[in-house]
Design brief:
This protein is of the alpha/beta class. 31% of the residues lie in helices and 20% in strands.
Length: 173
C-alpha cells in the first residue's frame, strides 16, 4: 500500500535559522569533519579572466575565502585563489612588476596554479584528526589545502577543501 504524504501546519511562531546552530569540533575529532566535501557541497569557482576585485566580491557573496579558478572555456579547474592572495602582497608585486593598475589585475595573474598546490589525499584525511589538520596549517602557513581523491581508474579528482579559518572557528580549546 503506498504511503500518503500529509502536510501539517507549524505550531511555532519562529524557527531557528537553518545552518545557524553552533557546531564545534575538538582536536581528537576526525579530520573529515572539518573538510568541505564536494561530494555534498558545490565548490565556488571564478574565471581566470575575472578581475581580482570581481573575484573577491563573488567570494564575499558566497561566504567563502577561497575559490577554484576555471579556464576561459569554463571546462576545467586550473588553479585556486584566496581572499588572502587578493588582499595581500600578490597584487602589489604584480603592479610593481607589470605596471598594471589594480583594477585591471586578473585572477590568472596572481592565482595559485595547480602545479604549486600542496594537497592532501582523501585516504589520509579519513585516518587523520582535526589536530593533525591544524598542525599542517600551523607548520606550513598555508590557509587552504585541496583534498584529492584517486578514482578506480587512477585519475586524480578534487574531492574537498580544508580551510584554516574554518578549523580555527570550529575548534573548541
Amino acid at each position: 500500500m503506498p504511503t500518503t504524504l500529509k502536510l501539517k501546519s507549524v505550531q511555532s511562531k519562529s524557527l531557528q535559522i537553518p545552518g545557524a546552530e553552533s557546531w564545534h569540533v575538538s582536536a581528537k575529532d576526525p579530520a573529515i569533519s572539518v573538510m568541505t566535501d564536494f561530494h555534498w557541497h558545490s565548490s565556488v569557482t571564478v574565471s581566470e579572466n575575472s578581475t581580482i576585485d570581481a573575484a573577491i566580491d563573488h567570494m564575499k557573496h558566497t561566504g567563502v575565502r577561497c575559490a577554484f579558478v576555471i579556464d576561459g572555456k569554463m571546462s576545467a579547474v586550473i588553479g585556486m585563489i584566496t581572499a588572502y592572495d587578493i588582499s595581500g602582497e600578490k597584487p602589489l608585486q604584480h603592479m610593481r612588476l607589470t605596471g598594471t593598475p589594480r583594477a585591471d589585475i586578473l585572477v590568472k595573474d596572481i592565482m595559485q596554479k595547480i602545479s604549486d598546490w600542496h594537497v592532501a589525499n582523501l585516504e589520509d584525511i579519513e585516518k587523520a584528526t582535526v589536530g593533525d589538520v591544524l598542525k599542517v596549517f600551523t607548520d606550513t602557513g598555508v590557509t587552504h589545502v585541496p583534498v584529492m581523491q584517486t578514482t578506480g581508474s587512477n585519475e586524480q579528482r578534487l574531492r574537498g577543501l580544508l580551510s584554516f579559518a574554518k578549523v580555527k572557528r570550529l575548534l573548541v580549546a
